[in-house]
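Z., the sequence and structure:
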Amino acid sequence: MSRLLDAPGRGPAGSAPEPRRHRRVAAKTRKRARRTPGRALAGGAALCALALAACVLPQVRHELRASFTRLPSTYTELYFTREPSLAHGEIVAPLTLVDHGDSPGRYRLRTWLTTATGKRIGSRTDTLAPRRTEVPVTMTARLSVAGGAQRGSGPVVVHVALVGRSQSLHFTLRGTP
């Protein structure tokens, strides 16, 4: 026979044994395959232990309780409908209020302007009375900047707040007046 046919792994199918190196690699692969379920089981047990330990912490328990408990849904949305802008010497701030509650109430909405130095240049208070809940009520607050801000004094900040509540907004207008 020729040398090629005498070499291990060569020749007719199944006639020659595998080289030693191939047998060792195959044996290691079989050992890894046997160890994998044990590692997966140990990893799963460690993950369960970690989750159980996290549930013992008060902060985690609070978040879990809050996510599965029906919380009160009474709240009020207040947002700018569009960006406030400067038009004809006054700041125009389009606002929307949405009452999410059992019955609509009356809301006092205070709008004021401040300069970059903190000087208040204009203020107004409006009353909004939504007729129904879940229905947006829009309004436009107009505040004059003619007398209060000097040209080149920097940005003007538009502040909006619901009187007696925690909701408030602010928006900085650059390059005004």
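The beta strands are 75-80, 85-87, 90-100, 107-115, 120-128, 137-144, 156-162, 168-173. Helices lie at 3-6, 20-56, 58-68.

Let me know what you think.
H.
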